[in-house]
Amino acid sequence: MNTALVIDDDPVVRTLLVHTLRDANWTVLEADDGDRGVELAIQHRPDVIICDLLMPRFNGYQLCRAIRSNQSFFPQPRIIVISSSNYAADRTNSIEAGADDFLLKPVKPVELLHLLELESGTTFIRKTPAISKGATPPDTTYFRRAIGSPPTVRFWGVRGSIATPGESTLKYGGNTTCIEVRADGELIVLDAGTGIRNLGRKLAAEFKTQPIELTILISHTHWDHIQGFPFFIPAYNPQNQVRIKGYEGARVGLQSVLSSQMESPYFPVSMQQLSGYLKIEELKEMQFNIGKVKVTVAFMNHPGICVGYRLDTSGGSIAFLPDNEPHSRLRMAPVTDSAQSYEVLAFAQKQDEKLIEFIRDCDIVIMDSQYDAAEYRSHIGWGHTCVDDAVALAVIAKVKKLYLFHHDPDHDDAKVDSMQDWARELAAIHGSPLQVEAAREGVEVVLNRAAK
Ligand SMILES: [Zn+2]
Ligand SMILES: [Zn+2]
């Protein structure tokens, strides 16, 4: 005779299950909480454990993990989790915790007995993997034609660090980093901060039933650059193709960083459950093409792995450097005990020269300008640029138009206005034709015009 252990804090449910099993000739043990359940399980080694998910003191996930991690418990029992929760995430989490099957409450006796006759794991069989590999991608000819011309850059999120909605940021916007570039039949999204949510809504409304194909380039995986992705509607539509490209982080890979922010308990839908044709690619090369758009990459001076992208399109060139702290400025700062050696400063200068080459002659440069010069003094080593340095770099590199970017969450519209005024004044002092704008959410720039 087989032994079953029923654990549920609801006496009605428990009694029903116990009777059902006894009538079917099972030896049944019962417990009204998880603590007692684990005790009985270890003592009596049942063949099957039927366990409620939400119980006081020790929940179903904890019970699954406690049983599965008990090496001496061999052979391991079959665990059937029962719950009134019909959310996919709760099922997924149950499997991860170690459950074999999942039954939705109210459990019908016949259903339970039927499940016990079937092989373990029956209720968790996946039909098809959600992230398609090798499937034929949908036809996006219409989409590519529709985004053909003119080439444009549109700001969907310009704020750094954290989203800052409210009265004081109405003019420049409170969403974090996201920029849309349409050029040469490609839709390229630079970073997936909270601004990507509105971009997704716009694309869904614009293309309705037509399949969408786009590439998201990730500069780095700090929150303000990835947090909007779970809310990007096109990734939920099976006919859309979303490619995400970026570089491996210091501790874990890109895919793992992006998918872990969608795991329970942070988010109700896992990346595996997204039905779009999703491809995450970890980049190795510092130069590649997206269709006809040439992409060049440079490492930025910012905590962790962070890159800037330069896109050369038929309509003009765009450089995107959302988070960066110039080397010379950082190394010259009096933060160390002794004065910096000439070698150190020379090295720092070389690094900045590389950055200047990277953005040289660009039509549009979108650059970190989080602080004013006075604020920078108390933020040395935080990985961001002050507006004076952003202007200097752009002037030396003969950039045509500079967009001040990654606005500080503490900066209201008036402050950003004043930084823009100061940046324009600086360009004039340098005698440079450089145009300067503070990046503003919702603004669209036509590339051909910007190139003039
Ligand atoms: Zn940032
Ligand atoms: Zn960052």
List the helices and strands and how they pair.
Blueprint: E1 3-7, H1 11-23, E2 27-31, H2 34-44, E3 48-52, H3 60-68, E4 78-83, H4 88-97, E5 101-104, H5 109-117, H6 141-146, E6 152-157, E7 178-183, E8 186-190, H7 196-207, E9 213-217, H8 223-226, E10 241-246, H9 254-260, E11 277-282, E12 287-290, E13 293-299, E14 307-313, E15 316-321, H10 327-332, H11 342-359, E16 364-368, H12 373-377, H13 387-396, E17 401-405, H14 413-429, E18 435-438, E19 444-446, H15 447-451
Parallel strand pairs: 1-2, 1-3, 3-4, 4-5, 8-9, 9-10, 10-11, 15-16, 16-17, 17-18
Antiparallel strand pairs: 6-7, 6-19, 7-8, 12-13, 13-14, 14-15
Residues 220, 222, 302, 323 line the site of one zinc ion.
How would you explain this protein's 3D organization?
The protein has 2 domains: 3-124, Rossmann fold (3-Layer(aba) Sandwich), CATH 3.40.50; 141-451, Ribonuclease Z/Hydroxyacylglutathione hydrolase-like (Metallo-beta-lactamase, Chain A, 4-Layer Sandwich). Helix content is 31%, strand content 22%. The chain has helices at residues 11-23, 34-44, 60-68, 88-97, 109-117, 141-146, 196-207, 223-226, 254-260, 327-332, 342-359, 373-377, 387-396, 413-429, 447-451; strands spanning 3-7, 27-31, 48-52, 78-83, 101-104, 152-157, 178-183, 186-190, 213-217, 241-246, 277-282, 287-290, 293-299, 307-313, 316-321, 364-368, 401-405, 435-438, 444-446. The strands form 3 sheets. A 7-stranded mixed beta sheet has the order 11-10-9-8-7-6-19. Strands 12-13-14-15-16-17-18 form a 7-stranded mixed beta sheet. Helix 2 (34-44) runs parallel beside helix 3 and helix 13 (387-396) runs parallel beside helix 14. The longest helix is centred in the last third of the chain and has 18 residues, at 342-359. The model is unreliable at 126-131 (pLDDT under 50). One zinc ion binds at residues 160, 222, 224-225, 322-323, 406. The site of one zinc ion (ZN) has 4 residues, from loops.
